[in-house]
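**Tokenised fold:**
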Amino acid sequence: MHCFLIASDCDLQCNVGELIVSVVLKTYMVRIFILLLFAGTASAAGDVSDNVRISSDVLGYDLQYRVYLPDSVNAQAKLPVMFVTDGPSYLSRGRMPLVLDRLIQEGEIDPIVVVFVDSRDPDNLQKNRRNAQFLCNSDYLNFYADELIPTIESNYPVADNREARGVIGMSFGATNAACFGLKGSNVFSRLGMLSPANHPVSDLLPAYEESPLLPLKIFLSTGKPNDNTEANRRFHKVLKDKGYNPEYVEVREGHNWDNWEPLLDDLLLFLYAQN
């Protein structure tokens, strides 16, 4: 009996030892799998540059921007490019690079270069110039056409034609996109407008009504309640009556990032869906 107990103890110890080894091996394999998984994700992530400073003769002051480049870009590529006003908010609140990474990796949109433009004074970030820039300011459009776009085209693998260029924004930034479409359709072909706040530019909708139909692809959204809902419904009607075929979305959120962040993939899929 005593010998039987000793034999059982040995068998138990062996079985426990084998179990421990098995668990350790499985844990090790899971860790390797997780590391490989994250390594694969990291390799597919695009890169966002540090701030790049640009001096504008048109505006008479300096600005800054950051650039998103998709993963594994061929230096000879000619990619579409999208310009984003209020760029820092799209990076921090919208987490747009993650959305871009996912949609590009899944083959939902073409790889694109994205320029996140900062409306603030680079030397004093408390000084935001967006109100002066975004409300149909012709100088701001000329800054893009004559200074920023040539700079981007000289330094990044982007196409140099209007068909490849888009501009998006939210609130006054969306109003800016509407103005760029109207006044700069020779520069931009794709507009993304999240909750435009067009009231300071009272002649914007009449200008769309009176202008000829322009070659523009338009994404327009608004929230409800506590957003510019009725005004943007009128804007949508003006666009449709004119002959545009905008992608129009209403969401049950207010004038904030709870509204805009979930729409970024919809906007990108409409404007840059893979051909």
In short: The CA atoms of residues 40 and 211 lie 49 Å apart.
